[in-house]
């Protein structure tokens, strides 16, 4: 009987591990674009290559806590300004160590560690992390101006319409019409015009927006 039980147990398929990878963003006002944080891997596989900060999910750990741990352990940062879940990647061969699901989380944060790269110029990354960014980018674009936690974390408490245009263009790859964008911003709860942006050498100044 014991041999039969052992044979049945050995025939059960192996379970997949679960990793949590953080697509961590910030808006760079000097370059007027959205950037994503990557880090250099210090262990196999892909030692020395750039990758999204990620960790293996611990037993009983919440996804948000794992994402915060990834930012802390891989980048040396504290808690992000905002955080949420995006999508699961389940390609069986995505990790050479064995079948691993990846839960992609979004975060808006900043800190001294890691390397920031433009969303339009992401270098080759380890695992399937380039695909993760490419698949998640339109999802993040949909969240802009709809998910207020995500949007406010990117814009900061006060921002000019030029920032709103650059944010929209950076995530959607499309330059928005300034007038249409201002009208859209006017419909967002807790967002109000607080002044005028001074733009030298251009036409009339644009609106400055503030979160209530």
Number of alpha- plus pi-helical segments: 6
In the CATH hierarchy, the third-tier topology of the largest domain is known as Nucleoside Triphosphate Pyrophosphohydrolase
What is the first-to-last residue Cα distance?
Answer: 70 Å
Biggest sheet features:
7 strands, mixed
Give the number of domains.
2
Secondary-structure-derived class? alpha+beta
Instruction: Write down how many β-strands occur, each being a DSSP E stretch of 2 or more residues.
Output: 10
- The helix fraction, in percent, is 25-40%
- Give me the strand/helix succession: HEEEEHEEEHHEHHEE
CATH architecture of the largest domain: Alpha-Beta Complex
Give unreliable regions as ranges. none
> What percentage of the residues does DSSP assign to strands (E)?
25-35%
Overall 3D form: elongated
Assigned CATH superfamily of the largest domain: Nucleoside Triphosphate Pyrophosphohydrolase
Top CATH class of the largest domain: Alpha Beta
Mean pLDDT across all amino acids? 92
Q: What is the rounded Rg?
A: 21 Å
Description:
The protein is an alpha+beta fold. The protein has 2 domains: 17-143, Nucleoside Triphosphate Pyrophosphohydrolase; 155-211, no CATH class. Helix content is 31%, strand content 29%. It contains 6 helices and 10 strands; from the N terminus they run αββββαβββααβααββ. A hairpin with an 8-residue loop joins β9 (191-197) and β10. The longest helix is centred in the middle third of the chain and has 15 residues, at 129-143. The protein is elongated. The model has no long low-confidence stretch (mean pLDDT 92).
